[in-house]
């Protein structure tokens, strides 16, 4: 925070604490000039107010809390930009990439700083890392179990499912059925291949699916003709003359989708004949895809989760169709 906010927060925090202390001291002094326990003359509904001091336990508790708050603010961050004497912080601030996070974590360890997030991550790896390795590896502890075998292990699949819900459900949905622009992982239709190795590679390294924009090259009529031909490949009823013209223009698409439109998993080019549409299968959606193109990105998870977790996650995704 800037200097003004730092000073403002510090003044408000300390002012509140010392204000409470001053109020406590003021309340412990007898200002009535009367004997303790004597009536003050204030009566309401038959109840008379007596000149009694604050209860001792209440006063001592208030003093303890004031002293505790001062020690706490001295040891931990809380007064504006003051970092605290212990150097504790909840997490690294202003981190914009995984590389920056790792560099900051290494620097904090070298300086002996107490970063709660780093400590919790280390602790989690100590506690749960062994369990991940137990499920992912063969008995020798060096060779990964076959993904197809792990897919039959109920305990391993439960762990994989939780990894999926924590990291993948935001895009693919909690039921893995995807959404517009995000693949359905349960229908056995794979842009980049559905073998165990291909699924793991997709999760490990990520994917980028780029569909070029053909609107300028084909023109508006050309876009409609190609859309008609593409829709006809999956059995849709279209204008036959328009589809025939679109078939002649489809040569520009065949390089990726194949001459028969069945796609190419090496390029992540969708199969256009099975009626499964990533960005929608209406005529308007297909024309929009041809006209403006698409750019889909699947992030790489190896650096975030590590290969052990990715191996279990790939097994869960594989189990959804096998």
TrEMBL record:
Required co-factor? heme c
- In the record, which residues are listed under signal peptide? none
Its keywords, alphabetically, are: Cell inner membrane, Cell membrane, Electron transport, Heme, Hydrogen ion transport, Ion transport, Iron, Membrane, Metal-binding, Oxidoreductase, Repeat, Respiratory chain, Transmembrane, Transmembrane helix, Transport
Q: Which InterPro entries match?
A: CcoP_N, CcoP_N_sf, Cyt_c-like_dom, Cyt_c-like_dom_sf, Cyt_C_IC, Cyt_c_oxidase_cbb3_su3, Cytochrome_c_Oxidase_Subunit
Q: Which residues form the Cytochrome c domain?
A: 155-234, 241-321
Q: Is Membrane given among the entry's keywords?
A: yes
Q: Report whether Repeat shows up as a keyword of the record.
A: yes
Q: Where in the cell is it found?
A: Cell inner membrane
TM region positions? 7-26, 57-76
What the record notes about the co-factor is: Binds 2 heme C groups per subunit.
Q: Name its pathway.
A: Energy metabolism; oxidative phosphorylation
Q: Which family does it belong to?
A: Belongs to the CcoP / FixP family.
Give the matching PANTHER family: CBB3-TYPE CYTOCHROME C OXIDASE SUBUNIT FIXP
| Protein purpose | C-type cytochrome. Part of the cbb3-type cytochrome c oxidase complex.
Q: How does it assemble?
A: Component of the cbb3-type cytochrome c oxidase.
Q: What is this protein called?
A: Cbb3-type cytochrome c oxidase subunit
């Amino acid at each position: 925070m800037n200097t003004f906010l730092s000073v403002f927060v510090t003044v408000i925090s300390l002012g509140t604490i010392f204000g409470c202390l001053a109020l406590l001291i003021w309340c412990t002094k007898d200002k009535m000039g009367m004997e303790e326990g004597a009536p003050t003359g204030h009566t309401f509904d038959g109840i008379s107010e007596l000149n009694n001091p604050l209860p001792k336990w209440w006063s001592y508790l208030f003093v303890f809390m004031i002293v505790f708050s001062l020690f706490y603010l001295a040891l931990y961050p809380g007064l504006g930009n003051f970092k605290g004497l212990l150097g504790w912080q909840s997490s690294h601030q202003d981190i914009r990439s995984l590389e920056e996070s790792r560099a900051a974590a290494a620097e904090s360890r070298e300086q002996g700083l107490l970063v709660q997030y780093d400590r919790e991550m280390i602790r989690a790896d100590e506690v749960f890392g062994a369990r991940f390795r137990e499920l992912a590896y063969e008995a020798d502890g060096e060779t990964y179990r076959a993904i197809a075998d792990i897919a039959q292990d109920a305990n391993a699949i439960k762990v994989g499912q939780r990894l999926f819900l924590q990291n993948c459900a935001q895009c693919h949905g909690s039921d893995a059925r995807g959404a517009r622009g995000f693949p359905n992982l349960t229908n056995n239709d794979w842009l980049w291949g559905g073998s165990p190795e291909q699924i793991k590679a997709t999760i490990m390294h990520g994917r980028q699916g780029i569909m070029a924009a053909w609107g300028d090259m084909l023109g508006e009529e050309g876009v409609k003709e190609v859309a008609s031909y593409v829709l006809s490949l999956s059995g849709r009823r279209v204008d036959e003359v328009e589809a025939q013209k679109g078939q002649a223009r489809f040569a520009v698409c065949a390089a990726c989708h194949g001459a028969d439109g069945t796609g190419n998993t090496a390029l992540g080019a969708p199969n256009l004949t099975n009626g499964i549409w990533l960005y929608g299968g209406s005529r308007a959606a297909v024309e929009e895809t041809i006209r403006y193109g698409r750019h889909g990105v699947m992030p790489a998870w190896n650096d975030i989760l590590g290969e052990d977790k990715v191996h279990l996650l790939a097994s869960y995704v594989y189990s959804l169709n096998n």
